[in-house]
Amino acid sequence: MLDIKRLREAPDVIRQAVRNKNEKGSVDAVLEADTRRRDIIVEVEQLKNTRNVVSQDIARLKKEKQDADGKIAEMKIVSDRIKELDEELRDVDAGLREGLLMLPNICHESVPVGGSAVDNLELRSWIPEHTMGINEDPEHPVLDHVELGRKLDILDFDRGAKLSGSGFPLYVNQGATLERALINFMLDTHLREHGYREVFPPFVVNTESMYGTGQLPKMSEDMYRCADDDLYLIPTAEVPITNMYRDEILDEAQVPTYFCGYSACFRREAGSYGKQTKGFLRVHQFNKVELVKFVRPEHSYDELESLVGNVERVLQLLEIPYRVLLLCTGDTSFSSAKTYDIEVWSPAEGAWLEASSCSNFEDYQARRANIRFRPEGQGSKPQFVHTLNGSGLATSRLMVAILENYQTPDGKIIVPKPLQPYTGFAMIG
RNA sequence: GGAAGGGUGGCAGAGUUGGUCGAUUGCGCCGGUCUUGAAAACCGGAGAUGGGCAACCAUCCGUGGGUUCGAAUCCUACCCCUUCCGCCA
């Protein structure tokens, strides 16, 4: 949620920023509601002041056994008017909040203006030696991850579909072990090398939490909902982890705090059928290790850089080719002010696959979720924290990259070295 | 699923014959005295949100509704938490 003051002070800037993000929330409707709201407040507060003052008089008169009937009758009229105005104020407030919730976060000035993915900026790429020239041998064309998974009996998409429907992967044998190893390796790396604290969150959350991080109200059709209990399956661990501190005031010492946690992630992917649905490329359930930071406002952009660095470190250790993109305004998500995507290379698809998205939300989520901290020093008022998060990383796309980049000419898979202590084997097949 | 208890300021915890209760107190916090420094002790300060944005004013005691001139205090509906019992992993 944006600060209403920003809208009042620079409505044109916000209007343009909303357009740059391809969003259609109305700045004018919000401003209109805001004006009306303040008018009502002025009037109703005056009346309430009268009522408070006169009520004191009434109390005094009664104590002195004097007649107060006239004043009481007078206040009855005032009270009725207050009730009317309060009701209107409640409606205006609700409308204002609704309008504000539909406005996206405003992108940082360093974000390139652009309409879609084609305007994203590739910042750097990293290609490990062992993957170079992998699909240049005409005798042994690379196999894609689905084929490798079937041949080696480690991924069973057909039975996954039987159990739950397409998009619910079933890992078997060494595939299941590899998946588990990957999760543990990533967690350990972030915990031991990057100073994160571990959390293991619930996989379902309530409505308030979904509003807090900005999934609601906009993304409701993309989430699985348990209607009987009014709970949602999380689309990412960002939701429970960021909401840990919802409606709390943190101590100075708790900022910054870095959290790292694994969760399964559930996405309906409504409306995206038909594109890239093969195997792991687009799934309804996947595993992800998530990084979340709560930081001081003045450090959040430095924290974003180090967050990206933490993610890159995992890919370098695993020796997987990747590139880093700075998303343009049109491709930056609703709640984010600046986002880097990290994509891994799939030699079989001949394409980069998004495996991580690292964002600085500034105070947008903190304002929605009411997460503040109290700076030290005299006269210190609570201030909104800045929140950041990034996938560190999603295993589905990573699994594609591992299987395809580590395949041997005879159809086996070499397990990346740092995963071998976790799997207990060095080769699949 | 059954029963009981409870939701108050950063935390803990008082406050029900409705009327200076935004609320006693303790801890924590900030400033000061003392000290080489710190602790302890003592003195003082400080809630949050909103409107003017200075004085000041309004709102906030789980949430909504009601009674009343006036409610943390009375009525009502709902939500959440804790404990116990039953059932199950």
Keywords for this entry:
429 residues; 40% helix; alpha+beta; RNA-binding; BirA Bifunctional Protein, domain 2; 16 strands; Helix Hairpins; 20% strand
**In total, how many beta strands?**
16
How does the overall form come out from the CA principal axes?
A: elongated
- Which CATH class of the largest domain applies here? Alpha Beta
By helix and strand content, what is the structural category? alpha+beta
What is the rounded Rg? Answer: 27 Å
Number of domains: 2
Percent strand:
15-25%
List the uncertain runs: none
List the strand order in the largest sheet. Answer: 1-9-10-11-14-8-7-2
- CATH topology-level name of the largest domain: BirA Bifunctional Protein, domain 2
- The CATH homologous superfamily of the largest domain: Bira Bifunctional Protein, Domain 2
Question: Mind summarizing the main beta sheet?
Answer: 8 strands, mixed
- Report how far the terminal alpha carbons are from each other: 51 Å
Approximate helicity band? 40-55%
- How many alpha or pi helices? 13
Q: Could you say what the CATH architecture of the largest domain is? A: 2-Layer Sandwich
SSE string, helices as H and strands as E: HHHHEHHHEEHEEHEEEHEEEHEEEHEHE
